[in-house]
Amino acid sequence: xxxxxxxxxxxxxxxxxxxxxxxxxxxxxxxxxxxxxxxxxxxxxxxxxxxxxxxxxxxxxxxxxxxxxxxxxxxxxxxxxxxxxxx
Length: 87
Known about the structure:
Blueprint: H1 3-18, H2 24-57, H3 67-85
Helix pairs in contact: 1-2, 2-3
């Protein structure tokens, strides 16, 4: 995610929190919308990364991935999974 996008969502959340006293329901609805956008972007990014990883080792026909390609793919899968588990 670009820093500008993250900053935009942070500002939207701050706006939701700041407006809670005057409009609690609207604030919660705004926070819900931000979370929906963040989650969708996150899901898209993970799906794209997985697609890239699969392309690195999945082959068709006679072009089989060698052991080194598979080792690197496994390393990348592990790193991504560990990053997600730390969230």
